[in-house]
Amino acid sequence: MNDRLQPKYHIGEDDFSIQYMSRNGSSSMPRPHEHPYFELYYLLNGERVYFMDDNVFTVKKGDMMIVNPHDLHSTASSDKLIFERVLIGFSRSFIEEGDAGVAKLLDHGTSRLVRIPLKHQPDIERLLLSMLAECQSGQAHYGSLVRAWMNELLIRLHRIETSLQSLPPEYEHPMHQKISEIAQYIKSNYHERLTLDQIAKQFYISPSYLSRVFTKLTGFHFREYLQVVRIREAQKMLVSSRDSVQFISEQTGFEHIAHFNKTFKKIAGTTPLQYRKRHG
């Protein structure tokens, strides 16, 4: 399989996008990222490692990752280097224009992995490839047809999830589970003084191995991930409370306000007070 990255097709500025990719060889996102729209990541073939917020997933053929707005995520190669995927980004308003009832399905559930049963995969793939082909052709009223197929896709995903028994995540590799546990620990204890050596000792891993595997699976260096978690929590506090910046910096694990301000601007692109003014 040769590398193929088709153009990303758009409907409206930020309403809908779809892209096909196939690749043979090691690859990963340059940086973990977030965005203000929903995302569907469907694997037509192969295998990928997917990090989402605080969980490491092994995504296989027939799996669908559903990513909610502003959830941090990244993908990287597994031991199997060949993969083929379709990626869709869409806004809630794009679905509402077709059916407000279907849009309400987006209100339930966190970002998650859905393992599509084999019997349902042809229907899911038919919808994805039909949307891709329609966007490529750009014929009259193609946006309306794509919206109708998107609504059908969301309804089918909802039915599939409803029929599946809720099970805890399955980890393909012991270190996937370990890194997920560490990421979850950081997310729950970001306000404390956390170091790589301390976490490595607590989870019975050598610091050098933890540093290497954490970066490989999450896309973050350990300290960088800790800072991102702290700043994301600070952003929530700035919007939801009237607490002082000094107080919020202390509550999110920063010992010095200057370090907090510098880190906040580096990650959020603005100062804490400007962020509060813009989003509060």
Automatic annotation (TrEMBL):
Residues 180-278 form the HTH araC/xylS-type domain. Pfam families: AraC_binding, HTH_18. Coiled coil: none annotated. Keywords: DNA-binding, Transcription, Transcription regulation. InterPro entries: AraC-bd (IPR003313), Homeodomain-like_sf (IPR009057), HTH-like (IPR037923), HTH_AraC (IPR018060), HTH_AraC-typ_CS (IPR018062), RmlC-like_jellyroll (IPR014710). PANTHER family: ARAC-FAMILY TRANSCRIPTIONAL REGULATOR, HTH-TYPE TRANSCRIPTIONAL ACTIVATOR RHAS. This is AraC-like DNA-binding protein. It comes from Paenibacillus lactis.
